[in-house]
Every structure is written in structure tokens, then in C-alpha cells.
Write a structure and sequence with these properties.
single chain, alpha+beta, Thrombin, subunit H, 6-stranded antiparallel beta barrel, 6-stranded antiparallel barrel, about 30% strand
Amino acid sequence: MRNLFNTKLKIILILAVLLTAVLAVMAGLTNRSIPELMVQGILAPFRAAGTSLTKTAERYYSYMFRYEALEAENEALKASIAKMEDVARQADATARENTRLRKAMALKEVHEDYDLTDAYIIGWSSTDWSNTFTINRGSNVGIEENMVAITENGEVVGLVTQVGSNFAVVKTVLDSTLEISATIATSGYNGMVSGGYIDGNEKYLQMDYLPSSSIIRNNDQVVTSGSTVYPRGLILGHVVDAGFKETGVAKYAVLKPAAEISSLEQVFILTNFRTE
């Protein structure tokens, strides 16, 4: 045991001498004292750890900065895309409006007696029995009650039932309380058209009081008969079905409205026309 202790002591002394010699040589080469070199050796691991932490912090800061920059760039891109989409929507709306206005002008060329005022739909109201919408024009541009609302193609949309200075309410052809005198264009049979009460076919119209002997075909066009309210020849719809009333004395026809009521954006109010 004593010999082992002596051996360990000798080894420690030899290592100390070698370390002292190495430090002396390094001191001579670096012009630094042995204590300075020892302190540097002791601090070296801590300095390495500090350098590693600094680099880690720098990388984290750089990552966070890039993330914030990318997030800001992403928000800017979203705003730019939203703006472009808005411009595209406005362009589409303008194109649709121009198309409607051109068709309305063509309608006036055919019916020179028509005075039309265009208006946009700004609100809807619909129940099981009524169907109305509000437009952005009123008495300030000459709109009055009992004026007809039509599409640019001369299709009946409805009738003005309420007017304010800058708005008006239109009751559509789908409303059950609106009745219009009509004619099947191909055969000349007359009847009354109304809407809103056909069970399961609320988006369709019904033409009543047709003669029991009348021959009714699918796709027959139905138009207004003409009155002080509705000029002759405005398109109401097309026949999709027909049958006998419960009494068996008269027939009826189911019509698909010519105007796509649910997809309307703009209508034209017929403020004046020549009665026949």
C-alpha cells in the first residue's frame, strides 16, 4: 500500500514537472506568465460555453427577426391579394352592368316608347306568401307606385308597391298577391298569372282560367296581355307543366319565370310607355 502511494506521488510529481515545463515553454513563446496561462486554461471551457451560448442567442434572434419579417411580408401579400380580388370583383360588376345597359338600350330601340330608369337591389324580403326587394332609386328620379320592374331583356320582375324619395319596394312575380293578365304567345289563350302558392314549386308561377279545351305545350312562352300598368308583350315565363283545376272546367299551366329572380342585381323601372 505504501509503495502504491509512493508510485502515485511520483506520477503526480512527474506530471507537475511536465506541466510546469510546458507552461514555461508556452510562456516563452507567447510572452505571458505561467499564472496567466493557468488562468486561461481554467477559463477556456467557460469561454467556449459562453461563445456557444452567444452563437445560439444570435441564431435565435436572427430566426425571430426573419420570422417577423416573413410575417409582415405575408400580411402585405394578403392585403395586396385582397386588393386585387376587390379590383377584379369591381371589374366583373362593371362588365355585367355594361352588358345589361347595352341590352336595355337595344330594348329601347325596339320599343321607342319605353322610358327606363335603372336601379340596384339593396335588400330582400321573402316569406311563404310574399316576395319583395328594395331598390336604391325612388321618387327623386320619377319612380311611382304601380310601375313595372323588368330586366334588360324585357322580362317581368314585378311591380313597384312603395316609394320613398331615394328608395322603392318592388313586389316580385313570385308574390302570391300579384296577379298579371297574360297570354300564351303561341296560341293566344288568355289567363291570370300569379305566384308563391304552388306547394313544392314556390319558385314557379301559375297561369289560371285557361279554357278546358286549350292545347298547352311545354316551353310555350307566356307574355303580358297589355294594360295601363303592363305593356303588351313583356315576357313572364315559359310553360313547364299543365293540368285541370279541381272543377274540371278550366285548365292551369305551371310556368318557370323568365327572370332569374334570386340572382338579380339590377332592374329597370318602366316609368313611361305608350298604351295601345
